[in-house]
Write the structure tokens for this entry.
Amino acid sequence: MVIRRKVDKREQLRRMREEAALGGGQRRIESQRKRGKLTARERIALLLDEGSFQELDTFVTHRSTDFGLADQIYLGDAVVSGYGKVDGRFVYVYSQDFTVLGGSLSEAVAGKICKVMDLAVSNGAPVVGLIDSGGARIQEGVDSLAGYSDIFHRNVRSSGVIPQISVILGPAAGGATYSPALTDFVFMASGIGQMYITGPDVIRAVTGEEVTHEELGGATAHTTRSGVAHFSIEGEEDCLAQVRRLLGFLPQNNMEDPPTLDLGDDPERQEYDLAHVIPDNPNRPYNMLDVVHQVVDAGDFMQVHERFAPNVIVGFGRFDGRTVGIVGNQPRQIAGVLDINASVKAARFVRFCDAFNIPLVTFIDVPGFMPGTTQEYGGIIRHGAKLIYAYAEATVPKISVLIKKAYGGAYIVMSSKNLRSDVNLSWPTGEVAVMGAGGAVSIIHRNEINNSEDPESTRTNLTAEYEERLMNPYIAASRGMIDDVIDPLETRPKIIRSLEMLANKREQLPYKKHGSIPL
């Protein structure tokens, strides 16, 4: 009899696990697939190393008996949660299950999510949220809203302690959008993921404006216009593969250094094509990505926020196996000027890297800040100050390479020696000045030009003289603002040697609760 009862219990456990694995049932699973979407468990299987997932709270159920919910109880409720590994390193994960009551957030669902977030912080590992939810469970009223509050609180407490990644694989509406917004990186599956505070129906009723779900909150809108999302990727499989790739660049927590990965690239490699990156015609733009790809290990650069504020580049690469955060002006986009969006984009990235011990390498070619009433009224002073704050506050190793020009306040902002950058290098083509030669000559020699018999010829000659005497990196180098002027071919080995020299950098900021960044 004892043996039979044990067998019965094991059989009961097997059946309950099978029931939990079905979520909302086979019919709803098929409905999910007809929408072109994977199930919550299929997504976890794609994200984590094969066979590594360990589920938690498999048998948790909601406790509400109102509004017909007593007849809709599913094992695990509307989220699958637990932990596993990505490339052999621990990751905590929760995956919302749209087949169970539309993936709506109940008190029980919030409790499961909060548990894995707490474990992630306690054990120093990243947390990845796979979002596919209709929002708060209306039937539970204030309890579901309190659940969101608990999640938001943990997002904030975890910020700067462990990497937090959100992957939008379905709807996220209303309050559900704020947890992703509080995380470090947001991925969106193009054509599947959508985020918005108020949906098209509400907007139509309140403002009369007609807009589709995709136009309002799709991946294109959030990666090009709002900047809420960092990555827009076709297909769930590719999207989750890119999440794995990103995790490979990041440390587990703020007390660890980023991982190293030997890609077999010679640290002494000199790239001869760099000598020809800058066109002879100064009015022709070039692609700063050509510089980045040629100097990082194996050309492997993961660009972040690629489609938002493309006049500045941010992303992750490696030098001699070490992860670095890369920031660069992009001359191909509005001449690489800094505007509001570019300043905010770069500042956020710099602060993330500083929080997680990731050295910063900055490639500079910036003519200044964007002029105009739109920028001034939009607060470019305040937003530009965010980038100043981020670089000045950062205590990680900071290396910059001046490729062509750095004018005015934009020179200061872009990891200048004056903001305590550690190593500042320049190509021979580098220029540091208050403004371009033409503008400077027009101000300094105004009277001489106006009184000349041939103003244009005089202006041309004075501009050439100004460029010859002052528009070169050696002036800044003579004052210690540039540490060395290097041959472009030497860029990669010079950066690697600088990183080696700075590997044990220690810098302490004055004690304070926190600074007051100009938000």
Remarks:
- The chain has a mean pLDDT of 93.
- Residues 309 and 518 are 20 Å apart (CA to CA).
- The first strand starts at residue 54 and ends at 56.
- The two ends are 69 Å apart (CA to CA).
